[in-house]
Amino acid sequence: MKNILVTGGTGFIGSHTCISLLESGNNITIVDSFMNSNKSVIEGIKKVLKLSNNLDENKIHLYLGDIRNTSFLQDVFLDSKNNKKPIDGVIHFAGLKAVGESMVNPIIYWDVNVNGSISLLKVMEANNCKTILFSSSATVYGDSKNIPFKESALINPFNTYGHTKATVENILKNIYDSNSSGWKIGCLRYFNPIGAHPSGFIGESPNGKPENIFPYICQVASGFRDKLYVFGNDWPTADGTCYRDYIHVVDLAEVHKITLNYLFNKENENLILNVGKGKPSSVLELIKTFERVNNININYEFSDRRVGDIPISYADTAKMFSLLKWKPSRSLEDMCRDGWAWQKNIS
Ligand code: NAD
Ligand code: WQD
């Protein structure tokens, strides 16, 4: 049993990962500023654990604060040590993730995503905690030409958000390459995580108008928004809409637990892994699947292409399969059904 610090642990992917860690008997120490989540997520996490008889309140610790505040983070590490549960490793989700917003407000993206990560790494080093799993993104590949993307593909982000992710990956590589021994680093490049926990107790709650397609579909389905605009039907694909690699958030949570255990068993590591299903689906296929499994119509209309989109993005998952001996098992149907269960719960 380990004590894992989960930054951004009340966010979309963080909350699902906390459940996965707790279900395996770990302690979790969440640090979150609630800038894109709130305390009710903790209640949701507890409800899920109660369902599977895994709830032990003593294993969940929550600290409200900002990762850029280094002395606050130092207090979290100290507190954990004093409570005889020193932090063994970190999963670092906390950050800002909206591509469009990152182009409008670059300073805040560099500050939170990069300075926030540096602040965390300083405190980890000071406390001799050297195992970290970092939330990177397929966006670091930009419009790199070789599809499916291999981890070795050119890193060529074309938005500020992507640059911040690539920069943190570089910082982590520098740390690994330096003489400081014992660092065990994993950068997971997620493709398109969607869905929710099947209980409907936790899921994604974007602030304002969603940039991503799945929460937008859910909000149209619930009647909260009138219509989905499909960005382009003239792409060079079979049905003219873009292809993406959707992965169920519960599968994504599972792979964090597995990768973290993989890192704990290494002496030194700097691992870069794509995390997707390796199976692209078109925007129309996603909409049609959502309609079919939930027996609901989605009002949509084709509109212009969105600036910065690429027609096809999906992962080469060979490295993940061979290294972790693990494959995501949940289908596009599962993603659509579970995501809708959550949306109905909050509508
Ligand atoms: P999210 O916004 O739901 O979760 C992020 C959490 O971090 C939120 O709870 C937020 O309150 C917290 N946070 C933000 N800034 C903070 C700060 N300065 N200090 C402390 N807490 C802070 O996002 P998510 O979808 O769960 O994404 C988690 C991570 O995965 C992010 O780093 C994101 O860039 C990355 N990622 C997400 C996706 C995706 O499609 N969701 C894809 C690739 C990578
Ligand atoms: C998917 C498809 C859109 C909204 C982004 C980030 C990436 C990662 C995941 C964080 C595209 C189309 C969308 C809408 C639409 N996040 N679409 N109507 O762009 O693949 O990736 O989120 O790291 O880094 O770049 O995901 O969900 O925005 O779009 O037609 O209202 O849906 O054009 O083809 P994307 P998305």
Overall description:
There is one protein chain. By secondary structure, this protein is α/β, with parallel strands linked by helices. It has a domain at 3-196 and 246-276 and 314-328: Rossmann fold, CATH 3.40.50.720. It is 41% helix and 17% strand. The chain is built from 11 helices and 13 strands. The strands form 4 sheets. A 7-stranded parallel sheet has the order 3-2-1-4-5-6-11, with helices on both faces. Helix 6 (160-177) links the parallel strand 5 (131-137) and strand 6 (184-190). Helix 1 (12-23) packs parallel to helix 2 (40-51) and helix 3 (70-82) runs parallel beside helix 5. The longest helix is centred in the middle third of the chain and has 21 residues, at 106-126. The protein is globular and about 55 Å long. The two termini are 37 Å apart. The structure holds nicotinamide-adenine-dinucleotide (NAD) and UDP-4-deoxy-4-formamido-beta-L-arabinopyranose. UDP-4-deoxy-4-formamido-beta-L-arabinopyranose (WQD) binds at residues 97, 99, 137-139, 192, 211-213, 216, 228-231, 242, 244, 283, 306, 309, 313. Residues 97, 99, 137-139, 192, 211-213, 216, 228-231, 242, 244, 283, 306, 309, 313 line the site of UDP-4-deoxy-4-formamido-beta-L-arabinopyranose (WQD).
